[in-house]
Every structure is written in C-alpha cells, then in structure tokens.
Automatic annotation (TrEMBL):
<comment type="similarity">
    <text>Belongs to the bacterial solute-binding protein SsuA/TauA family.</text>
</comment>
<keyword id="KW-0813">Transport</keyword>
<keyword id="KW-0472">Membrane</keyword>
<keyword id="KW-1003">Cell membrane</keyword>
<dbReference type="GO" id="GO:0005886">
    <property type="term" value="C:plasma membrane"/>
</dbReference>
<keyword id="KW-0997">Cell inner membrane</keyword>
<dbReference type="GO" id="GO:0042597">
    <property type="term" value="C:periplasmic space"/>
</dbReference>
<dbReference type="GO" id="GO:0042626">
    <property type="term" value="F:ATPase-coupled transmembrane transporter activity"/>
</dbReference>
<dbReference type="InterPro" id="IPR044527">
    <property type="entry name" value="NrtA/CpmA_ABC-bd_dom"/>
</dbReference>
<protein>
    <submittedName>
        <fullName>Sulfate ABC transporter substrate-binding protein</fullName>
    </submittedName>
</protein>
<dbReference type="Pfam" id="PF13379">
    <property type="entry name" value="NMT1_2"/>
</dbReference>
<keyword id="KW-0732">Signal</keyword>
<dbReference type="InterPro" id="IPR010067">
    <property type="entry name" value="ABC_SsuA_sub-bd"/>
</dbReference>
Amino acid sequence: MRPLPSVRRALAAVAVAVLALTLGGCGYGSQRDERSQVAPKGERLSAGTVRIGYFPTLTHATPLVGLREGILQKELGGTRLKAVGFNAGPSAVEALNAGSVDISWIGPSPAVNGYQRAHGENLRIISGAASGGVKFVVDPKKITSPEDVRGKRIATPQKGNTQDVALLHWITGRGWAVDPRTGKGDVSVVRTDAKAVPGAFASGSVDGAWVPEPTASRLVAAGGKVLLDESGLWPDGKFVTANVVVSRKFLDRHPDVVEAVLRGSVRTNAWIAAHPDRSKVAANAALKDLSGSALPADVLDPAWQSVRTTDDPLAATLSAQAEHAVAAGLLKKPDLTGIYDLTLLGKVLRSEGKPPVDAGGPGSR
C-alpha cells in the first residue's frame, strides 16, 4: 500500500531533517551557497557546473569581487558557477577532499596539511591570490607590549589554519611553550570561529586575536590595538595568505574549466588594481550578501588597505610557513613535491601579456 498523502509529507519532512543533520555533521563550515550575479551565457565547457569555495574575509578579495562583478562567470561561459562559503581553511580542504567543491581560495597552512595527509593525491595549488591582511590585535588595557602576551588568552580562527600557525610560531620564537593540540601553555590559544571573535573580544573572554581582515579592523574599531602587523615579520612585507587550490581529479578531467577560472582570477586582480574604490565597494557588497551586513567605513577602509591581491603564489613563503607548522608541532615534516601546478596560470598570464610568476618552491612546474 502507498502511504497516505499526510504520511508521505511527514516522511519527507523527516528525510529533509535527517539530510540537514547529516550535512551539518560533515563539518565543512559552509555558510550558504551563492550563485554568481551573472547567469551562464555562451558555450558550455567540459563541466556543466564548477563549485568554488571562498571565505568572507578580505584576503579573499578576488572571489568576492570576481563573483560580485560577474568576471568569473563571464570566463566560464555556459558552465554554471556555484560558490560555497566557508569560515576556515581546514573545512574547505575537507570539502575539497569529499568532492563538495572543485576549486577553492584557501590559506597556505590548510593546503599544506591537506596535501600531506593525502600524500599529494588530492589537491594542487594553481595560483596565488593574496598577500598580507593579517594582524595581531589586543586589548590595550591588558596588553601593551609583546611581553604582556604571556599568560593571556589569544584567539585564532581554527586549529591548524594559517593564522593559528603564525601565532604558535611567534609564541615559540619568544621561548614560550604551548601544546599545539590543546592550545594550553604559557599563552592560551583559543580556537574560535572568526564570526565569534569580535564577541569574544568584547566580552573579555579573549585578550587578543591573530586574525585576517576584516576581523582585525573590527577589533580595532571596538577599541583594540594592533600589536603587530604580520607583514612586518616577512621580507619585503610579502607573505601568502591565500592561494587558489584545485581538486586534482577536477584538474585532470576539466583543465578547460580550471583555465577559465584562473583567467577570471587574473582579470579580477587586474580589475581590482585598476578600480580600487569600486572594488572595495563590490567586496563590501559581497560580504553583506554573506553575513547580512556591510562593513562600516572605519572597518572597511583600513582592512582594504592592508590586503594585496596577487597572481604570484609566493612559493618561498609557503615553504617557510610549512616549516613554522612543523616547528610548532602541528605538522610532520612534509614532502611538498608536486604541490604546485602553475602550468595553466603561466598560459593565462602569457595570453594576458603579463610576466610569468616565480615558479620557485617545492616541486612546482
């Protein structure tokens, strides 16, 4: 016998609830799915849809602006772009491994960690995206110098993410000890979702945070003080904070789609450089779409100034960050041979009349 309509509706509701719980338990940290502002138009490439991951941070200015302005979708023609938001890199790597996204903007430490765990079988770094845009902001009533950080509670977005590694490296560089697994030690490292950091800072449950923009400028606007800008710790102030990473399977099966996304990325970065004010407005509108509210000028302006978009993956700094993760005890010494595949990026840059990026680094080609 077939169930009665009311019973079928009840069963469907239960199925939806179970599916929601199942997806929620995956731990991908996705916020919501977004569609490109421009509908697919033109000839479809080898894949009908490409799923792209990104974060609601200004270090991901390229996808924020590229999606908002329709630049990425334009390069894809009739292939539909589906964008998925994440809160931190390890969640995006998990989704990439599970096949939930095909390409993602992501920080260097999660990319390295994910590559090592999968023995190089899961992903490739195919382009740079951003440099800078990370600051250590503290409560000036509790911390006035680096020495005052000892014994305090400092937030990072997630265990093992790029800012978490940077803070642990800075702590060990001062001769202090912290258990990388628990975050306990001479400094308490509190792994806190980036969205919750401002509230934790305002309540006093953390005394500072090592975070990307715009969270850093949010804390400053709330009375925090920049103890250090991470760019000051790197030669020439340049260090990778975001790369473009692709599933190896997707790269092998759909190189034309990957090339189109890279062309969109390169052209978006060029558009940002040529239209800084419009780009800032577009990025803020994209953040509003994701979070429900735009950034006020006292947060947006300084945050935007501290981020630099780039096609260069800054490979040497990724190697250094991997060494920092090893020294901090978060990572075994990795074999990064083959983590870079800059072939398609080089092709796109040549077609755009741009010089090739430095392909130096671990196993790039």
